[in-house]
Design goal:
The protein is mainly alpha-helical and 210 residues long. The chain contains nine helices and no strands. The chain starts with 7 loop residues before the first helix and ends with a helix.
């Protein structure tokens, strides 16, 4: 057969474990949906999965292996990704500082809206994370099985993984947007921002150290 469906049950189980493990995408989607609403969350989700499609395509085409064979390229990607996460954290912390400063003057009690384009933020945060590319290179080929067309099998696996991830992350976005109005209290909003900033900083350190 052109494809081998025998490894599919094991692939689905392994994919579920990977997808349900929190990462930068989840924190980005949660914060975007909670602070800017459903539409912004969906745009960020579209950006994340646009990047994922590009990365899976790199793996299938063989370019991913070429990129990862050059340590200097991977190192540059890691530092760019870490720097972008630090930028995200700094933007959040700056918003918190401005909120505190203006609240002290009696002018503002909630964090200012984030002016960044949600789609581009999702796209760039995923594209600059080489761990996703490395994961795809290490994960997908394990489930090629006895397929007569390995490339076609990789396409099938990549599509299945992206669909499963999209379903879970769409649920995350819609759920967060649904409860966003209940979390509009200034203290809650500030706490969420502080947690998001800490998560982005922690992940940035792990990205460089990993």
């Amino acid at each position: 057969m052109l494809t081998d469906l025998t490894p599919l049950p094991a692939f689905l189980l392994a994919s579920a474990v990977v997808i349900l493990t929190p990462g930068v995408d989840v924190f980005l989607l949660l914060r975007t949906s909670l602070t800017a609403g459903r539409r912004a969350g969906l745009l960020a989700l579209a950006g994340i999965h646009s990047a994922s499609i590009i990365q899976v395509a790199l793996v299938i085409s063989g370019l991913g292996a070429l990129i990862t064979s050059h340590p200097a390229v991977l190192s540059v990607l890691k530092w760019i990704g870490a720097a972008y996460l630090v930028y995200l954290a700094a933007s959040i912390l700056r918003g918190l500082w401005l909120t505190r400063k203006e609240a002290a003057a009696g002018a503002l009690t909630t964090p200012p809206a984030d002016p960044a384009n949600p789609y581009l933020r999702g796209l760039f945060s995923n594209l600059t994370n080489p761990k996703m590319l490395l994961f795809s290179l290490a994960f997908l080929p394990q489930f090629v099985g006895a397929a007569a067309q390995p490339a076609l099998q990789l396409v099938l696996l990549g599509v299945v993984f992206l669909v499963l991830a999209a379903i879970w992350e769409l649920t995350t976005v819609l759920g967060a947007a649904r409860i966003a109005t209940r979390l509009q209290h200034p203290r809650v909003a500030k706490s969420l921002d502080a947690i998001s900033a800490a998560a982005f900083l922690t992940i940035s350190v792990g990205l460089v150290a990993g």
